[in-house]
Please model this.
Amino acid sequence: MRPVSIWQRSPWGLLLCLLCSSCLGSPSPSTAPEKRAGSQGLRFRLAGFPRKPFEGRVEIQRAGEWGTICDDDFTLQAAHVLCRELGFTEATGWTHSAKYGPGTGRIWLDNLSCSGTEQSVTECASRGWGNSDCTHDEDAGVICKDQRLPGFSDSNVIEVEQHLQVEEVRLRPAVGRGRRPLPVTEGLVEVRLPEGWSQVCDKGWSAHNSHVVCGMLGFPSEKRVNTAFYRLLAQRQQHSFGLHGVACVGTEAHLSLCSLEFYRANDTTRCPGGAPAVVSCVPGPLYAASSGQRKQQQSKPQGETRVRLKGGAHPGEGRVEVLKASTWGTICDRKWDLQAASVVCRELGFGSAREALSGARMGQGMGAIHLSEVRCSGQEPSLWKCPHKNITAEDCSHSQDAGVRCNLPYTGVETKIRLSGGRSQHEGRVEVQIGGPGSLRWGLICGDDWGTLEAMVVCRQLGLGYANHGLQETWYWDSGNITEVVMSGVRCTGSELSLDQCAHHGTHIACKRTGTRFTAGVICSETASDLLLHSALVQETAYIEDRPLHMLYCAAEENCLARSARSANWPYGHRRLLRFSSQIHNLGRADFRPKAGRHSWVWHECHGHYHSMDIFTHYDILTPNGTKVAEGHKASFCLEDTECQEDVSKRYECANFGEQGITVGCWDLYRHDIDCQWIDITDVKPGNYILQVVINPNFEVAESDFTNNAMKCNCKYDGHRIWVHNCHIGDAFSEEANRKFERYPGQTSNQVI
Model:
């Protein structure tokens, strides 16, 4: 069982921690990131208000005291160094004159001068630690790029009196060790102290304690355990007790927040008449260890969930969205804390919350913001049982969307796969482990049909975030001594937790292109784009145009007309076109860039532009049963930033063979009067239909979420006019609302060609 870090605190230590706002989940400032060796024991954090999670006043803890940095001689190079100390890849800006509010305590650094390449701020020149003539009205701040350094982790271990720590907790199986499948759901509770792993005395142990431990280990709930069996077993074993008197309320997100006592070194009698505490946890649906557990959970009648996570790079994390009046919406982060986040995590089948995220850390949502000031005790079975305030768009913006990171069970799936030959740990040829005990070996995956969806599963399984690319050829990466292809025909939906959950050929290997150069590879990233169509604009701008054929030569050249147009009497006659505007937003955490570089873009002389993607969107007219009666497609004539949010600058412009893409927080607008921004409905008969628009339909470019790439509208066509209504993103409605949408009155009487 992989251990999970926790804190230990005496009551006085906890009070002190709360007063200095350094507890996990405390709104301001956040707990400092864990430092690397070059930082010489310093700790760094971002503080102040108002701010986003990747910006703020820089504070440094030295010799146990927090302080700030003066803005005299401060530069972007210094901001780069500090952002790396904080765990971000680089700085995008810096602030002066206490923009995020004045700090308190010492001003540790003044006249800070860095080249930008230093590994630690201690390598930069300054007036010396604590030597400053500034006031806190001159405190410096930084704005970091919202992208984490690979492998950087935030610390959740806090030192307390006498430097005594509880660093980790685990369940150790008492019987059948080594033969039981992961995750481990039952066993002795062990905590790691400075002197090693120790058991917990079960005197006074309660179900509340078990609930907290299970939550920390990634399980939503606990169940009763056969204590008589374990007590009998304990009589035959020796134990090392380090902790006793644990008393939890049951709402704590960490065992460290419970009342507990440590045995002193001179305590000769430990846990008299007691035994090691034993806990049995119930895994969530995703982590049911055996098929029997899965069947038992699936047999229980379950209604549609009213909470979900979107935009997370890893399982159990994301932007929190709730279902209200059949429509999904987000939560404002006001008063968002670990208790509320833990209710969400447990409701979704995970453990308690590891982090309560604010400031749209998991990307901004779109549409409604349903709730604000959610206040949970931690005992509620659902977030909707917590007191909250309803909200309007004027009260909160999507830049304040709340998110969570949940505790997950350790399954060990990352040990069954690895990357080799890449320039970094985030890329390489995919190798999988096959065989049983005593005959394990590593092998390669056939690159046939390997794509973004399969790469997403690999990156998720390895804990490396999203997939930037799924590669079918990896000749440029050295395969070492691994040359055997052991898996082929891999097809994933993109939602699997590990590659062995995807369909594949099994033991029969069928690979069209043989050799190690044609094996599968991936490039992973902690961030990804997320495209979303502005559905209301489609509804507002839709209309019919009868366009003469002599004006459609370029459109015909780019296959933007129905097949019947080929046999038309050119240049006489016309085509009937359903036209509408398309506004595509990037709400993710990375820019959307074409898969192909500029060197391979295709020039189209007729329209006078380059195509960076052959098919960027699909436009379809469907019958209620899904039969396609008209279709269109849109190549990426030009991906650029048409407009952006207030605080975002445009980066992409197509003029003069410029770079193409959509920046985070910007949108690309294809107006209704642009060529090919239509569906040719000349051959469609009157009736009721569904208009469907799908962005990035072939998954050519990786996104954090593909479920919101489709938009649907009801449309009624009488042969002369068309009514488009009820437009919505594919996953914006509840399941029941979607069923009603697809069978609205009149659809059954369609006349279809």
